[in-house]
Amino acid sequence: DLIERLLCFQPMERLGARGATEVKDHVFFDGVQWDSLYRTSAPFKPMVRDVLRDGSAEPSAEISDPAFNSQHFEAHFKDGNNSRSPQRDGHGGAIGMNEPE
């Protein structure tokens, strides 16, 4: 029941849609002493130097959204002509710009 309600297709009907208390009150969590759990300290506390880096990336590695490429933005707006549309690669990606007809 817990998993089914967490994975409910309708977002507003999902367990937890009305707050964390709804999840904590589920029968699965009967017996959990939430106040005691909140006061418990973690058995391991990692040292975090930078919130954006967890140590798995090289210090020189650039963090960026792979779906965003400023090249397409610049090509579209560079000359002030924003009537051009992107050429599609057939897989949802843009490969260039079509000139206006």
What keywords describe this structure?
two-stranded antiparallel ribbon, 2 strands, Ser_Thr_kinase_AGC, 2 domains, 101 residues, 24% helix, alpha+beta
Structure, described:
- The chain is α+β, with helices and mostly antiparallel strands and 101 residues long.
- The protein has two domains: 1-40, no CATH class; 68-101, no CATH class.
- It is 24% helix and 9% strand.
- It has helices spanning 2-6, 20-24, 34-39, 70-77, and strands at 85-88, 94-98.
- Strands 1-2 form a two-stranded antiparallel sheet.
- The longest helix has 8 residues, at 70-77.
- It is flat.
- Keywords: ATP-binding, Kinase, Nucleotide-binding, Serine/threonine-protein kinase, Transferase.
- Residues 30-101 form the AGC-kinase C-terminal domain.
- This is non-specific serine/threonine protein kinase.
- GO terms for molecular function: ATP binding; protein serine/threonine kinase activity.
Q: What series of H and E elements makes up the topology? A: HHHHEE
Q: Which percent band covers the strand fraction? A: 5-15%
Global shape: flat
For the biggest sheet, the summary is: 2 strands, antiparallel
Task: Please identify the structural class as seen in this structure.
Answer: alpha+beta
Rounded mean pLDDT score: 74
How far apart the termini lie comes to 57 Å
* Count of discrete alpha- or pi-helical segments spanning 4 or more residues: 4
Domains (count): 2
Task: Tell me the radius of gyration.
Answer: 24 Å
Q: Portion of residues in helices?
A: 10-25%
- Strand order across the biggest sheet? 1-2
- The counted number of beta strands is 2
| Low-confidence segments | none
